[in-house]
Every structure is written in C-alpha cells, then in structure tokens.
C-alpha cells in the first residue's frame, strides 16, 4: 500500500509506525516484540489506528487504500492535556526491559499484576517457566487478561499441568474468545489446554469445532485431539465423543480440486480411525459421508 499518491492526504494526519520482526528475540527484534505485545498482535499483517496518548486501538483500517483513507477520515482523537499516559508507557517499557535483562523470579512475581501489559507479559513468561504452580493457582483470574500473548502463556502452563480447576475458564474462552486479535489461535490454545484439563462437560464446548469439517483450519484437528484425550481420562464421555466426531466427517470439495480432496480424505480417515467400525470406503463422496455419519 505504501508509497501511494492516494495516501498523500493522510501523510500529515497520522504518525506512521512500521513494525518488523525477524523473531530472533535480540536487538531491534526485542523492541519490535514489545510493540506487538503492547497491542496484542500475534498474527501478521495488522493495520490499525491507535490513540497516540493511550495507545488504545481505535479501529482496524482494512488493507486497501480506500478502506484506510476512510478510517483516517472517520477517526478523531483529542489533543493530550498531559504527558502522564506516555510517561506510564515509558515506565512500563523500563520494567519490561529490566525483566528481560535480569530474568528474576522475585521481580517477575512482583510485576505479574503490573498495570502495563508489556511488563506484565514479560513477568508471566518468567513465572510460567520458573514457577508454573503460581500460574495454575491463579489461572481463572489470569485468563481474563485481555491480551492474546498473555493468555497464550496461561494456556500453555495449564496444558502442561493438566489442572482440572481451570476447565470452566478455558471453556469460556473457547465459547467466546474476545477481546482478541487472533480468536482462532486463542481458541486453539484453550482447546489444547482442555485436552489436559477438561472433563465430560468440556465435550459439548469443544465438539462444534471438531465438527466443522474444515481440513484447512488447525483448530479442527486440535479439537479432535482434545476430545480423544478427554475421553481417555473420562471413559464415560466416550459415547458423547463418538457421537460428536461422527458428525465431523468433512464435506467433499468440488470436483477437480485434488489438493483439497487429499486433505479432506485425510481428515475423514482420521475421524474414521477413531469412530468407524466398517472399512473406509474406496471413494469418499457425499454419499459415503452420509453413510459414515450415521
């Protein structure tokens, strides 16, 4: 989109910030990661307008010149009356950098409830690695923090710990992963954690995402994994899991799309290995799907 003569009208209306990451987590990339954490960005590209004082995301602009210019023209911000908000951000960055440098568990515990999301996320990373029991104990509360990177870390700890007390809080995220800039991945992380933490009640929450038949969405296979893991721990849930998975046989793609057909059949065979009793049909089509789903 840049440079473009059609954007000249906006050049002086906004402060442009381009964030590039090489994922080395060193030097400039560490600074870029902090910016991503501040805005909750975990997928790229993202294009949005933010309040220059509070750094709150005001609107997502879309990726065309027309949608971007429309967003700029519609968006207004007040002139800052003080630099207090910017000073708070500066101090948060300082605490985050201190955590990155020292990696102190004592310091991380102190900043785990920090008002700055970047410092708080850095603290979470350290506590999650060095004292995961603290995260498990506070999981329900920590899962409410409106930041994707932060909640990813909580879900990872819960997946490894397998603590059943967090099941209901994880189910809430699966049902409604908001606020989130990457709801599909947030759901995936929560479902993966439920594979370790969930119980029979979790089956109904996860089942719809195993039944989409979407062979291009990683959430489908993650949901199947979680349902099977729950059924293996809670044997009485096997009938509900089998019933759910039988409705997950994917719809065959239109004729001529060989690549999609291979992915479709692979998913169908995977489900069949779990719930099927008869041999898998030589030809997987709509009729075969209907028979297998019964």
Task: Please provide a written account of the structure.
- The mean pLDDT is 95.
- The chain is mostly helical.
- The protein starts with 7 loop residues before the first helix and ends with a helix.
- Helices cover 59% and strands 2% of the residues.
- Strands 1-2 form a two-stranded antiparallel ribbon.
- It is globular, with a radius of gyration of 23 Å.
- The protein is built from 16 helices and 2 strands.
- It has helices at 8-11, 28-39, 65-74, 84-102, 105-111, 117-130, 132-137, 139-142, 148-161, 167-175, 183-197, 202-210, 218-233, 238-246, 258-275, 286-292, and strands at residues 48-50, 57-60.
Q: What letter string, H or E per element, gives the SSE order? A: HHEEHHHHHHHHHHHHHH
Strand order of the largest sheet: 1-2
Mean pLDDT: 95
Shape annotation: globular
Structural class assignment: mainly alpha
Unreliable parts: none
Task: Provide the gyration radius in Å.
Answer: 23 Å
Q: How is the biggest beta sheet arranged?
A: 2 strands, antiparallel
Q: What fraction, in percent, of the residue positions are helical?
A: 55-70%
Measure the end-to-end span: 50 Å
Beta-strand percentage range: under 5%
- Per DSSP E runs of 2 or more residues, the count of β-strands stands at 2
SS field, number of helical segments: 16
């Amino acid at each position: 989109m840049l440079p473009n003569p059609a954007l000249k009208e906006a050049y002086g209306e906004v402060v442009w910030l381009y964030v590039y990451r090489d994922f080395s987590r060193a030097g400039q990339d560490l600074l870029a990661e902090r910016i991503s954490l501040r805005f909750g960005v975990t997928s790229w590209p993202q294009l949005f307008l933010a309040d220059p004082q509070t750094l709150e995301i005001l609107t997502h602009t879309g990726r065309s010149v027309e949608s971007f210019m429309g967003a700029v023209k519609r968006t207004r911000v007040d002139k800052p009356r003080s630099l207090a908000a910017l000073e708070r951000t500066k101090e948060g960055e300082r605490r985050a950098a201190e955590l990155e440098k020292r990696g102190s568990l004592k310091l991380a515990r102190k900043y785990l409830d920090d008002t700055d999301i970047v410092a708080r996320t850095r603290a979470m990373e350290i506590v999650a690695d060095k004292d995961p029991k603290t995260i498990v104990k506070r999981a329900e509360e920590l899962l409410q923090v409106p930041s994707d990177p932060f909640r990813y870390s909580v879900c990872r700890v819960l997946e490894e710990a397998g603590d059943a007390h967090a099941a209901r809080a994880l189910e809430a995220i699966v049902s409604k992963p908001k606020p989130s800039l990457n709801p599909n991945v947030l759901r995936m992380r929560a479902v993966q954690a439920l594979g370790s933490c969930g119980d029979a009640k979790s089956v109904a929450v996860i089942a719809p995402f195993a039944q989409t038949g979407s062979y291009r969405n990683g959430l489908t296979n993650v949901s199947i994994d979680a349902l099977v893991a729950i059924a293996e721990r809670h044997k009485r849930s096997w009938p509900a899991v089998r019933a759910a998975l039988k409705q997950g046989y994917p719809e065959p793609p239109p004729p001529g799309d060989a690549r999609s057909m291979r992915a479709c059949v692979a998913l169908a065979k995977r489900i069949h290995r779990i719930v099927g009793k008869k041999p898998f049909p030589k030809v997987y089509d709509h009729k075969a799907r209907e028979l297998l789903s019964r």
